[in-house]
Write a structure and sequence with these properties.
Growth Hormone, Chain: A, 16 helices, about 75% helix, mainly alpha, single chain
Length: about 450
């Protein structure tokens, strides 16, 4: 059996035994830091710009959108580079090491904004630093995701490996959910955000390095290695119909989630009138639902099939998500219950999408005899990040349209119109987008590839 630095193993060798639990755990742990990096800016960067840096909402949304649109190119380029590299550490791990370190450094700088006089300059600084941070994260996240398709050729073992990834992702969501409370503990205004950045950056640093070292002796399934130019990567995605269908479904789902993420803090503060600590508690229940449900989702996928669980969990998620529109500020227990059920059902469609992704990559390998995991992972992650970027742009535009007023004084009262816009951005728009994605979910079927 091959490690990442040795020669390829045969398919029979790879399928002989499933991946050990310690390896799955070490691989999955990187999602804590990865999710913190994704979610903390998703939760706080728009409020940071509008309610501390005094940047107008539409401009703030644009400042976040531009860096995330750049990853359409950064992620595939990371896939190309990690497919081509040869080193004693293998193809993926050198990029994860350097990319992880640079990601943490840029994340900390993101919340240390110089005292520029104009809102345009402040938004420009955030835009530039966030672009650098996302570029570094591409170097980490694309090879990291690619490993999931390279360590085993068995479809069910890939589902099991992805369940560890999703479980640790839940803990990353929890940690990032308390970022607002940590910011409040660190002080008012810029000082609080700077304190939060150092605290979250330290956690990112430790957890993102775990899979770099834990996968040193990981098995590596391969046939032939190839690398594709960026244009060829997108043509490759268009030729793989199962992958393309799945890509369309997940783009809409990440778009819905990105819209909800960008509006979350505004919704909980202005609509549900919750303190910052409650935000973390809600996210804790969301993550707990996702964490405890992983064995059940793995069983349900085996019993009923991936596409059926994918569609069922997504519809159930939308049904429960409607409850956010009727819950009242004083119903704390009900708020936490909605969070728990949202996390439980959200984990179902995220896990099935990831498992279908590895199947689609395996299908391409079986069909062509070529190993192009990095190319597929780059397109997949670019798709996800652009969807989140558009979600932020939607929220910034909606807030601006409904009269949200920027300020440097924190979460000051807003008009009734602005509160209505926040509710639409957090509840109505995400549900509508999720339901549209069902058109593609119901077609998400990957031919067996092993």
């Amino acid at each position: 059996m091959r490690t990442d630095a040795d020669q390829p193993a045969s398919s029979a060798q790879q399928g002989a035994s499933r991946l050990p639990t310690w390896l799955c755990t070490g691989y999955g742990a990187g999602m804590i830091g990865g999710q913190i990096f994704r979610d903390t800016p998703a939760f706080l960067l728009l409020p940071f710009l509008t309610n501390t840096l005094e940047v107008p909402a539409a401009m703030a949304g644009l400042a976040i959108f531009i860096p995330k649109f750049w990853v359409v190119f950064a992620d595939p380029l990371a896939g190309i580079a990690s497919d081509r590299v040869r080193s004693p550490w293998g193809r993926r791990r050198p990029f994860m090491l350097v990319g992880g370190l640079l990601t943490v450094a840029a994340f900390i700088l993101l919340f240390h904004v110089p005292t520029f006089a104009s809102a345009v300059a402040r938004a420009g600084y955030v835009c530039v630093i966030y672009t650098l941070a996302l570029t570094a994260f591409s170097a980490y996240s694309v090879p990291y995701l690619t490993m999931g398709a390279e360590m085993t050729s068995d479809s069910h073992d890939r589902t099991r490996l992805m369940s560890f990834r999703v479980a640790f992702m839940c803990w990353g969501v929890v940690t990032s959910g308390y970022a607002a409370a940590i910011r409040e503990y660190g002080g008012e205004g810029m000082a609080g955000y700077a304190f939060m950045a150092w605290a979250m950056g330290a956690i990112c640093l430790v957890t993102m390095m775990v899979p770099v070292f834990a996968t040193a002796k990981a098995p590596y399934f391969d046939r032939h290695e190839t690398s594709l130019a960026i244009g060829a990567q997108f043509r490759l995605a268009l030729e793989n119909k199962p992958f393309l269908t799945l890509l369309a479904a997940t783009f809409l789902q990440r778009l819905a989630e990105g819209t909800g993420y960008a509006a979350l803090v505004f919704f909980l503060v202005y609509v549900l009138k919750q303190p910052m600590l409650m935000i973390g508690n809600i996210v804790l229940f969301v993550a707990a639902g996702g964490f405890v449900s992983q064995p059940a989702w793995v069983w349900l996928i085996r019993r009923f099939g991936k596409r059926e669980v994918y569609a069922g969990s997504l519809v159930a998620y939308c049904i429960f998500y409607v409850l956010w529109a009727v819950v009242r500020p004083e119903q704390s227990a009900f708020i936490l219950f909605i969070g728990f059920m949202s996390g439980l059902l959200n984990a179902g469609y995220i896990l099935t999408a990831l498992s279908l992704l590895t199947d689609a990559i395996g299908y391409d390998r079986a069909r062509t005899g070529l190993n192009r995991e990095g190319a597929y992972s780059g397109v997949w992650l670019a798709n996800e990040k652009v969807a989140f970027a558009v979600g932020t742009l939607i929220v910034g535009s909606v807030l601006s349209w409904f009269g949200f007023a920027e300020t440097a004084a924190g979460f000051v009262p807003q008009s009734d119109g602005a509160v209505t816009g926040i509710t639409l951005a957090y509840v109505a728009i995400p549900i509508a987008i999720h339901l549209i994605s069902l058109v593609f979910v119901l077609r998400a079927r990957v031919p067996s590839a092993g």
